[in-house]
Amino acid sequence: MTDPTPAAQALLVSFDEVQLAEMIASASARIKRVRALHKQEYNTCDWCSTNDRYADWPCPTIRALDGEEQPGA
């Protein structure tokens, strides 16, 4: 992990430890809910696939959560 930018550091110091812990817990819970939707079924994403189109695994959502570079980004 890299050091936060000066702007990020200034933002972080404006919160107390309890607020930061609550924000981290909330973000973590949201990420878990997104991952629960985007499950691997065979070699596709069950959530992103439709009746007429299959989404390869890992889908763009999981790749983004995992920090992978997105095509065209």
Structure, described:
The protein has 73 residues and is mainly α. It has helices spanning 6-13, 17-37, 60-65; strands at residues 40-41, 44-45. It has a two-stranded antiparallel ribbon with strand order 1-2. The longest helix is centred in the middle third of the chain and has 21 residues, at 17-37. It is elongated and about 50 Å long.
Q: Label the structural class.
A: mainly alpha
Backbone shape: elongated
Number of H/I helices: 3
Q: Could you state the order of secondary-structure elements as H and E?
A: HHEEH
Mind describing the biggest β-sheet? 2 strands, antiparallel
Low-confidence stretches: none
Q: Based on the structure, what is the oligomeric state of the protein chains?
A: single chain
In total, how many beta strands? Answer: 2
Give the end-to-end Cα distance, rounded to a whole number of Å.
21 Å
Mean pLDDT over the full residue set:
90
Radius of gyration: 17 Å
User: Strand percentage, roughly?
Assistant: 5-15%
Helix content: 40-55%
Strand order of the largest sheet: 1-2
Concise summary:
With 73 residues, this protein is mainly alpha-helical. It has helices at 6-13, 17-37, 60-65, and strands spanning 40-41, 44-45. The radius of gyration is 17 Å and the shape is elongated.
List keywords for this structure.
73 residues, mainly alpha, single chain, two-stranded antiparallel ribbon
